[in-house]
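Hi V.,

You were right to ask for the full record rather than a summary. Here it is.
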Amino acid sequence: MRPLLVLSVSAGNGHVRAAQALCAAAQARQPACAAVHVDAMAHMAAGFRKVYTDWYLQLVQRAPDLWSYLHQKSDSTPHSAASQRLRRGIERASAGALLREVRRVGPAAIVCTHFLPAELLMRERNRGRLGCPVWLQVTDYDLHNMWIVPGLQGYFAATQEVAFRMRERGLDALRLHVTGIPVMPGFSRPEAPALLRAAQVAHLGLDPARKVVLIASGGAGMGDLPAMAARALALQGPGCDFQVVAVAGRNAAALASLQALAPRHAGRLRAIGFTHEMDRLMAAADLVVTKPGGLTISECLALGKPMLLVSPIPGQEEHNAGFLLEEGAAWLAYDMIGLGYKLARLMAAPDTLERMAQRSRALGRPDAAQQVLDRVQGRA
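Predicted structure:
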């Protein structure tokens, strides 16, 4: 039986997590669907890989204004422009090993969670060198020009607005499907929210008498997480006797700083590095403080969690934040002072938190991965 191939790009963690979610959903099916996840960057030329992944992370951290300019410029640049043709030429020249890996797997269908492999494979299909259908999963709540790859079998959008933008930019309306963004099965829990929260608080050994604020900086550990945790723990007033769970991801320095901070706030700070239990941590939380990455907020929405958004990357994350603010599922803190002010206000207003949680649950698509697989496998 030929497998489903899911191709991601490790520029940030979101594209990879969406691919992992699709594979997990496929393996959980009855009967199980054979699915293979391949990080396209692992099969690109080494120099290209370093520039594409490391340069992106360095740019958004150290020169966000430059990234904002490049994001806007590329969004308005036609695909026929010389700069875009040059970009695609460099990608093709670097992709020989990736295309060989695709042929080796011999998939029945391919789902891409990033536009780069979709562009490469569409060219292969147009030249008669690839026979299987290729689908594209958009992993944000807005649409950038780079995701417009005409001629694919189909496209999966997070919202009706993203699908509308796809149509306006020329994609075939009959190939557009609003599914949400795939999340791991752990974020698709059917229990009542209060019961789920209580169970996870107990599992994690947290204090059931205190509210839980989860502060997450993403798998790469971006942002000044220790400063955010310190600011949160220093708050005074009604509702501010909460406990903080701070997830540093792979940022060892941030984790060490959090661990040094914990003894000064006995019983109120849990410092965690990279973890595979984000679903449990999020389920236990009364509020999630996070950057608005497409996958992170999809996980929050799937579990119906209110969010306080911080440090959005210019471009896609700013647009994600705008979507959540419009829908009433999140607040936004522009800086550390705003973080303290808004966190104190929210924790003193349980009715506001509950309204935000209700909006979040209404927006959540915990079954997105299953809907995508239904389309790809012809069940929908």
